[in-house]
Write a structure and sequence with these properties.
The protein is α+β, with helices and mostly antiparallel strands. The chain has one domain (2-321). Helices cover 18% and strands 26% of the residues. It has seven helices and 16 strands. It has helices at residues 20-35, 37-43, 83-88, 104-107, 111-116, 177-190, 318-321, and strands at 2-10, 54-61, 64-66, 91-93, 127-134, 151-158, 164-170, 203-210, 221-224, 244-247, 266-269, 274-276, 284-286, 289-290, 303-304, 307-313. Strands 2-7-1-8 form a four-stranded antiparallel β-sheet. The longest helix is centred in the first third of the chain and has 16 residues, at 20-35. The protein is globular, with a radius of gyration of 21 Å. The two termini are 39 Å apart.
Length: 322
C-alpha cells in the first residue's frame, strides 16, 4: 500500500462532514460510474478479508491531525489552561508528531488558534453552521400538497482560506493513483454528501504527494485517522481508548432511487482513537464491513470502510505517567 497526502480546497458549503468511510463510499460509486461495475467488483474482492484496495482518512485542517482521544492523565499539565480550554485543543500539528505523547497537549491548537493563524483576527472559527430551510415536494403535483411540513438541514460554511489534508492508502497493483485522483475530482465537481444535487459539497484537489507517517520509537499503540471497526482484532482493551458512534448509513448515487436507501447501522470508533497492539503486519487498523447482505438488503454486495490509516505512537506506561 502506498500512502498519499491530498490537499483539498472547499468550494461551497457542505451538508455532510468529510469522514473517511463516507468518502470511501462515494469513491466506490465514482469508480463504478467512470470505469464500470466490473472494475468496482474486481477491486472489492477480498475487501472484508483484510485486502482493501484503498483506505481513506477524514479530512483535517491543513497541517494537523486530531489529538489522541486518551485520558487527560497521559498529558503533562499546561500552566494557565482551565479544563474548558484544554478540551478545545483538539488539533495536533504534524511537526509535533515526533514529540513524546505526554507533551502533545502543549503543542496542540484549538480551532480558534488555527483560524486566527490565517491572519484575520475577527474570524475565530474554521466553520460556521447555518440552517437551510427545506420542504417536501409531491413529485406528481409539483407542490407541497396538504401536508406542508418545512424542515431545516444544517450547512457548514468554511473559513475562506481553509484547506484540508486527507490521507489515502492505495494498492497500486490493483488501481493506479491517477485513476483514484480522477474519481475524487469527479466527486469534487459533482458534490459530496447530502444536498450535492443543489450545489453542496464541492471541492478541488490542489495537490497529491507521497506521504508517510514515521512511527515513533518503541511504538506500542496506533492512532487512527478515520472511523474504524476494531471489533475482534485482538487489541489490548485495557490500554485502548476511543469514542464510539453509530453510523446510520444510506446508499448514495442512483441507489437512492431503489426504494430503501438505508443500510443497517454500524458501531464505529471515531478518528483519534488509540489501540494498543505491538505487532501488526498492516499499515492500518480495522476491517471491511458488509457483503452477503449484512449491510444492505437492496444491494447485498454493499461494503463499508471499517479500516483506518494509522500513526504508530509510544503510549506512556504507568511509571512514566507518575
Amino acid at each position: 500500500m502506498q500512502s498519499y497526502q491530498l490537499t483539498l480546497k472547499p468550494l461551497t458549503a457542505f451538508a455532510t462532514a468529510l469522514y473517511g468511510d463516507t468518502l470511501f463510499g462515494q469513491l466506490c460509486w465514482a469508480i463504478r460510474n467512470r470505469y464500470g461495475e466490473d472494475k468496482l467488483t474486481e477491486l472489492l474482492k477480498g475487501y472484508t478479508e483484510q485486502q482493501p484496495f484503498a483506505i481513506v482518512s477524514n479530512a483535517f485542517p491543513e497541517g494537523y491531525i486530531p489529538l489522541a482521544k486518551i485520558p487527560g492523565h497521559f498529558y503533562k499539565e499546561v500552566a494557565g489552561l482551565d479544563r474548558k480550554a484544554v478540551k478545545k485543543r483538539a488539533w495536533l500539528p504534524l511537526e509535533a508528531l515526533s514529540k513524546p505523547v505526554s507533551e502533545w497537549l502543549h503543542y496542540a491548537s484549538s480551532e480558534a488558534d488555527i483560524a486566527q493563524a490565517y491572519g484575520d483576527k475577527e474570524i475565530t472559527k474554521l466553520q460556521q453552521t447555518h440552517p437551510q430551510p427545506h420542504n417536501s415536494i409531491n413529485r406528481q403535483t409539483g407542490t407541497t400538497g396538504e401536508g406542508f411540513a418545512p424542515y431545516s438541514i444544517e450547512q457548514h460554511w468554511f473559513h475562506p482560506q481553509l484547506q484540508w489534508h486527507c490521507y489515502i492508502q492505495i494498492d497500486e497493483q490493483r488501481i493506479e493513483l491517477e485513476s483514484i485522483r480522477q474519481c475524487l475530482e469527479d466527486i469534487g465537481q459533482i458534490g459530496y454528501g447530502r444536498d450535492a444535487s443543489i450545489g453542496m459539497g464541492k471541492f478541488a484537489i490542489l495537490e497529491c504527494q507521497p506521504f508517510q507517517f514515521n512511527a515513533q520509537n518503541q511504538t506500542n499503540a496506533w492512532l487512527t485517522l478515520a472511523p474504524c471497526a476494531p471489533q475482534g482484532q485482538g487489541y489490548d482493551a485495557e490500554k485502548s481508548y476511543y469514542q464510539v458512534f453509530t453510523r446510520f448509513g444510506r446508499h448514495g448515487d442512483r441507489a437512492v432511487q431503489q426504494g430503501k436507501p438505508f443500510k443497517n447501522p454500524v458501531l464505529l470508533a471515531q478518528a483519534g482513537a488509540v489501540f494498543s497492539l505491538t505487532n501488526t503486519k498492516n499499515p492500518w487498523i480495522g476491517q471491511g464491513i458488509g457483503g452477503q447482505g449484512e449491510l444492505s438488503k437492496i444491494i447485498p454486495d454493499t461494503v463499508q470502510q471499517g479500516y483506518s490509516p494509522v500513526f504508530g505512537i509510544c503510549l506512556p506506561n504507568d511509571a512514566e505517567r507518575q
